[in-house]
Design goal:
The structure holds two protein chains of two kinds. Chain A is built from ten helices and 14 strands. By secondary structure, chain A is α+β, with helices and mostly antiparallel strands. In chain A, helix 5 runs antiparallel to helix 6, helix 7 packs parallel to helix 8 and helix 8 runs antiparallel to helix 10. The longest helix of chain A has 36 residues. Chain A is elongated, with a radius of gyration of 25 Å. Chain B is α/β, with parallel strands linked by helices. Classes of the chains: A alpha+beta, B alpha/beta. Chains A and B meet through helix 5 and helix 6 of A and helix 2 and helix 5 of B.
């Protein structure tokens, strides 16, 4: 199985225990055997298969006896035991109750949810439930394609409206009195908003249909960060947000796609500005870490609850702030970021504390860093 | 919001054409509203002389008499694409190397790169900001003159 998305983690509610009567267990096994989802039970140390239900056996063409001779690693040629145990740490330490991953199997897209079950007499087992999500994925794609077609149709008239309003606002057509100017300002602002929504949708569709350029070349990551911060400074000013850039590097050349990286930083920054209270500071960081370079954007916003993190990188999902209000936007920004960073092979992560703020970051892996020029004293610049 | 991808101009035998200031632009777009906005932008904001056509065919027929210094072409049009208009106009005497700028809502990067390979001076992605278009066109003209 090839991993295609970050594990989605669910908060811990304690470990279930198998302390039921034999009759009840037989009844439960009958139910398990009739499920469409594949169920895999395997030991938590050697990953040796203890039980697979009929759907799981069918998927691999194994008999029950054959399955007993195998480990979970045999279910996919690309199974990576080290990565599996790394992902399972939160289950062992009780931090999480289950881990859900979307994977690409040779049969199509699947979703695997894994829990750790501790028994007193037989030891500890993982239970993984595998669900075929081909239908769900194709519906998601259909949704994006439909919205994308509509967006294309919207963009032509919007271009005219936007252009006409820009000429009007700039006084090219006629001088405007204050009242008219304020009404035109509202129209311009909202047309800009509509256009950015349409552009987000089209971007996501471009990524999904392989029409976006992801070619990588030598690029100056510090220049890219500075230029992007400059680009968002107008929006920050409108929201009364201060921007701060700090870096422990004077120079850094990496292999990357500057347009795509700028798009990612802009998305992080736009969210950070959107969710920050007036007067707050949004911090941009660029640091060398284990040979790689981490680019981060931190805000002083309401933070993200564990419930909200599950949907964070999904298209059309948008968190409500702690005050219950929704910020303007499509909820596509992070889905675009996720898709771009996956294609560039830059890991993305975030940390958040409710009431304190969030930090979103991506890491340019060491093998894509060409050279760096560290500075002794960390530099801080305000934009 | 507008994305501009600039490209080097084609090797020119008629580089002297570009050594004088840009005055005459031939613009083709099938959308009447866009034509009004582009005309206002380029004539009022940019002081250029803009000859507009609603179809590729009309533009191809009029190009010889207009003798444009620059072509500004919408890419997606019903009768012929901007690329076809470009080809047919640049086949005409004296217009072989006229710098050509494409206006397109179709922002696929591969599409822009293909036009670059073929020698387009720039591709401007809609929506165009009419307050900035004239300066963008001047900049493209300046670069095309230098190359």
């Amino acid at each position: 199985m090839q991993q295609t998305s970050k594990p989605q983690r669910h908060a811990s509610t304690g470990h279930p225990r198998l302390d039921r009567s034999p009759t009840e267990l037989a009844f439960l096994e009958t139910i398990l055997e009739s499920l469409h989802d594949g169920v895999y039970v395997y030991t938590s140390d050697s990953l040796r298969i203890r039980y697979m239900n009929a759907a799981a056996l069918d998927r691999h063409g194994w008999t029950r006896e054959e399955a007993r001779e195998k480990t979970i690693s045999d279910t996919a040629a690309t199974f990576n035991e080290k990565a599996f145990f790394r992902a399972a740490v939160p289950l062992f330490n009780g931090e999480l109750d289950s881990i859900t991953m979307e994977l690409t199997h040779f049969t199509g897209p699947i979703e695997v949810s894994t829990r750790l079950i501790r028994t007193t007499d037989e030891g500890d087992f993982f239970v993984s439930v595998l669900r075929d999500i081909t239908g769900r994925k194709s519906l998601e794609l259909e949704k994006v394609q439909t919205v994308s077609t509509v967006s294309h149709e919207l963009r032509t008239p919007l271009t005219s409206i936007h252009g006409a309003l820009r000429l009007l606002k700039a006084g090219v057509v006629a001088d405007l009195d204050d009242k008219t100017q304020s009404v035109v300002d509202i129209a311009v602002r909202n047309t800009d908003r509509l256009l950015s929504i349409v552009n987000d949708i089209l971007d996501l569709e471009k990524i999904n249909s392989d029409k976006m350029d992801f070619s990588i070349a030598e690029m100056d990551i510090i220049e890219c960060l500075n230029d992007t911060v400059e680009l968002v400074s107008g929006t920050a000013f409108e929201h009364d947000i201060e921007l701060e850039i700090s870096s422990d590097l004077r120079g850094a050349m990496v292999m990357g796609n500057s347009d795509r990286i700028a798009q990612v930083i802009t998305n992080f920054a736009s969210n950070a500005i959107k969710y920050s209270p007036s007067g707050a500071t949004v911090r941009f960081g660029l640091e060398q870490e284990d040979g790689g370079i981490v680019v981060s954007v931190s805000d002083e916003g309401p933070g993200i609850t564990p419930d909200q993190t599950r949907m964070l990188f999904k298209p059309f999902s948008q968190a409500r702030a702690s005050d219950g209000t929704k910020r303007p936007g499509t909820g596509l920004g992070l889905a675009i970021v996720d898709a771009i960073l996956k294609r560039l092979d830059y890991p993305v992560s975030f940390t958040s504390e409710v009431g304190q703020g969030s930090t979103f970051q991506f890491r340019i892996p060491a093998h894509l860093v060409l050279w760096t020029d560290p500075i002794e004293t960390r530099g801080v610049a305000r934009a | 919001m507008t994305t501009i991808v600039e490209f080097p101009a084609k090797e020119s035998e008629e580089i002297s054409v570009m050594s004088k200031p840009l005055e005459t632009i031939l613009h083709v777009d099938d959308d009447a509203d866009i034509r009004v906005i582009i005309k206002m932008s380029l004539e009022t904001v940019g002081s250029f002389n803009v000859h507009q056509f609603a179809s590729g065919q009309e533009a191809v027929e009029a190009a010889a008499s207009v003798q444009p210094q620059m072509l500004l072409l919408d890419m997606m049009m019903p009768d012929m694409s901007g690329e076809e208009v470009w080809k047919l106009i640049t086949q005409q005497p004296g217009l072989a190397t006229v710098p050509t700028v494409f206006l397109t809502a179709k922002a696929e990067d591969s599409f822009s790169q293909e036009l670059r390979r073929k020698g387009a001076a720039a591709v401007i992605t809609k929506p165009v900001d009419p307050m900035l278009l004239a300066s963008q066109i001047k900049e493209i003209w300046h670069k095309a003159s230098q190359s």
